[in-house]
Design goal:
The complex is a heterodimer of chains A (424) and B (299). Chain A is of the alpha+beta class and 424 residues long. Chain A has 19 helices and twelve strands. Classes of the chains: A alpha+beta (424), B mainly beta (299).
């Protein structure tokens, strides 16, 4: 009884899916000419002769059923597709992303199947548009360039990205990794081998995060260490911050919070805390580690990520506004936040290195020194007698939706804010 | 008979709709502004305001002092300077019990108790607080009973102290919080905390020991809110520093409106830092980058 009902259910599912994949209805019902679902199409679409000669041909095309994906009469979608690119593939390939993925390839989530796959045919497996790493590096170009240049290469990377990464989604790892980072590394690198233990000063690093020190994609430093290494790590003086390797809690740090960093960076910490305004994350539970990696990093100052990415994680609104701006301030657009801001502390608003209204701008823009317009501490803003005129009286330092980083759309609008009598 | 019943129902429905609208809609009418103290000295980048029914205390941050104004006829009068060596860079400020004021100093990061006669009383030293021992206060508020609420960003928690600073209880920040920057307590004792990074408001009802989401994904209405305040109806006011406005939320967290705009003229604000509700429906804003305090009549 149970077998029968399961069989019936399967029959229903198969019929439903096949019905969705292909155009509903029979040739007789529509009075179709023989071959109307595909063969006829190929008579006009000559270029398909070349496509049909490739090694891998997408099943609907192989069966010459163009109407499986395209509407032969009319469509609201490009290439006369029967649905949007995202939907048309998912009609047959519904399960490319698992139910509870830890990470999903953005291009998959965005429905960009055709960025990797040729929907008709290809000379490569799975109808991919390119083979192996070269396909990945089409989008991940800068990573590809870095990998090609590095002095010390990681063998699995040389072989294929898929040694460590999945392509559509991963249930177990971030960044589409096949499993948790360490589990993946330890699959090849056995942590109980004497050489491994010696290199890691006998610390049980298998319980830490390998990518905290090593760049799995390759490096110019031996041991695939990141580009910038914290001095105690480089000197293998782990016990400067951590308990002894022989202790019961070897990975535990000696002091919590900023106190540990102060041990070496005392002057810097003192200078930081001597200012009026502190960057609040510095005082949070994570302290310095909110922004810095204590072991090694690809970025200057041991930042956890490139500066812009790091800052925008919290200051997402700045990023959102930046995307709308027509006129962009170069350092902002290039993610050089530290050009104007001191990320630790400052005596000025916005944690700028100098007063943001005028002095700061003069670092790069000499114009302020010979402007014919009154500007500086002695020039009172006619709109508000508590303010003096500075660059930011007319320009917004991060850029605006208007030209020249103006607050207002036209130059006239900018001027008449103060010169009201000239307003027409 | 049926006709008159229908007319009554229609009228009742109209009145209900109108009343509901009247209960939620607010207008921010520019009422007054002050940019100087009683000796005509200018304010500089004020970052804090505390309100009572009859007075407004200002953290004149850039000048390293406090100013005490009287609220007379919906305007600020006097502006007496309070200059104390314990306060060099005042930020957040709140009225406490016995006419005292609690001031968070940005440089020392201590909370200073200032008496009603403008003298230094003591630093607030929280007592009997469970680990971690270090407390870093990002913001604070005081409820109608005088209990003190501290946003402790070192301990990822909200500390609740009695008026003398003795620990009563703590509530840990919600999981996945971004950056908690302010706290408010309404008349029923509901605690509200503002997550500036996640553009969300969380709340804990009286005696609840955890925060739940009250409003989330507010990024369509604001950029980076830094101050939260509630009124007698339980409505919530968020001061959006980076996009120069005030966002009004209903008791249930629903978005009711966005008010004010960027600019230098009266009624416009430029990087507002804190807001508070004074008597007679006056909303006071520390208009930081305009170096002034603005008063808006809520209508």
């Amino acid at each position: 009884m149970r077998v029968r009902s399961v069989t019936s259910l399967l029959v229903v599912i198969v019929l439903t899916v096949s019905g969705q994949c292909l155009a509903v209805g029979t040739d007789q019902q529509f009075n179709l000419k023989p071959g109307a679902r595909g063969n006829l199409c190929l008579k006009c679409h000559d270029s398909f002769k070349e496509k049909m000669a490739r090694k891998v041909i997408h099943t609907p095309l192989r069966k010459k059923e163009c109407s499986g994906c395209h509407n032969p009469h009319t469509s609201s979608h490009g290439k006369m597709l029967a649905s949007s690119t995202k939907m048309v593939c998912s009609l047959c390939h519904a399960t490319m992303v698992s139910a509870k993925p830890r990470s999903v390839h953005k291009v998959v989530a965005d429905g960009g199947c055709m960025k990797c796959h040729d929907p008709h045919s290809s000379d490569y497996k799975n109808s991919l548009v390119k083979e192996g790493k070269s396909l990945c590096f089409t989008c991940h170009k800068s990573l590809g360039e870095k990998i090609a240049k590095v002095k010390y290469k990681h063998a699995p990377v040389e072989k294929d990205c898929l040694s460590c990464h999945l392509v559509h989604s991963s249930d177990k790892g971030l960044s589409l990794l096949r499993s948790e980072t360490n589990a993946l590394c330890l699959g090849c690198h056995q942590s109980d081998k004497p050489l491994f233990m010696k290199k890691h000063m006998n610390y049980p690093v298998a319980k830490a995060l390998c990518t905290g020190c090593h760049n799995p994609h390759g490096s110019d430093s031996p041991g695939l260490l990141h580009k910038n290494v914290h001095s105690p790590v480089a000197k293998r003086m782990c016990n400067q911050c951590h308990m002894e390797a022989t202790s019961a809690t070897p990975l535990k740090i000696k002091t919590e919070g900023i106190g540990l960093c102060r041990g070496c960076h005392n002057d810097m910490v003192n200078k930081t805390f001597d200012k009026n305004r502190l960057h609040w994350p510095l005082l949070s539970k994570k302290g310095c580690l909110a922004c810095h990696n204590p072991h090694a990093s690809e970025d200057k100052g041991l930042l956890r990520e490139p500066m812009a990415q790091m800052c925008y994680k919290c200051h997402d609104d700045t990023m959102r506004r930046q995307q709308k701006n027509i006129s962009k301030h170069e350092p902002v657009a290039e993610g050089r936040c530290g050009e104007c801001h001191d990320p630790h502390s400052s005596n000025f608003l916005f944690l700028t290195k100098k007063d943001h209204k005028f002095e700061l701008c003069l670092n790069c823009h000499d114009w302020g020194r010979h402007s014919s317009h009154p500007i500086g501490e002695k020039s009172v803003d006619p709109r508000n007698k508590n303010l003096t005129l500075g660059c930011v009286s007319c320009h917004r330092s991060h850029g605006t939706e208007n030209k020249k980083m103006f607050f207002y759309k036209t130059t006239t609008e900018v001027c008449v804010q103060c010169h009201e009598k000239l307003a027409r | 008979m049926i006709r008159s019943t229908c007319v009554h129902i229609f009228l009742l429905a109209t009145v209900c709709v109108y009343s509901a609208h009247a209960a939620t809609a607010v207008k921010f009418k520019p009422q007054a502004l002050t940019n100087q103290d009683s000796k005509n000295a200018p304010l500089k980048n004020p970052e804090g305001v505390a309100c009572s029914a009859t007075s407004v205390l200002v953290s004149d941050t850039g000048n390293g002092r406090l100013l005490r104004y009287n609220l007379v006829n919906d305007d600020l009068k006097e502006g007496t300077e309070i200059r104390l060596p314990q306060i060099t860079y005042p930020l957040r400020i709140k009225f406490a019990s016995k006419g005292e004021v609690l001031v968070l100093d940005g440089k020392s990061r201590k909370i200073v108790r200032v008496a009603a006669n403008n003298t230094f009383v003591a630093f607030l030293e929280p007592q009997n607080v469970p680990a971690p021992a270090t407390i870093v206060t990002r913001s604070l508020t005081v409820d109608s009973k005088g209990n003190i609420y501290l946003v402790d960003i070192q301990g990822d928690r909200l500390l609740i102290l009695d008026p003398n600073g003795v620990f009563i209880r703590q509530i840990t920040f919600p999981a996945d919080f971004g950056y908690i920057s302010d706290v408010a307590v309404d008349q029923r004792g509901t605690i509200l905390i503002l997550d500036s990074m996640k553009d969300s408001v969380y709340r804990a009802l009286v005696n609840e020991n955890n925060f739940t989401v009250m409003a989330k994904d507010l990024q369509n209405y604001l950029f980076f809110a830094v101050s939260i305040e509630t009124d007698s109806q339980g409505r919530v006011y968020l001061v959006d520093q980076n996009d120069n406005g005030v966002i009004l939320l209903g008791q249930d967290g629903s978005f009711l409106g966005r008010y004010l705009n960027f600019g230098w003229k009266q009624g416009q604000i430029y990087y507002p830092a804190q807001g508070c509700l004074a008597g007679n429906d006056i909303f006071v804003i520390a208009d930081r980058d305009n170096s002034r305090i603005q008063l808006f009549k809520l209508q």
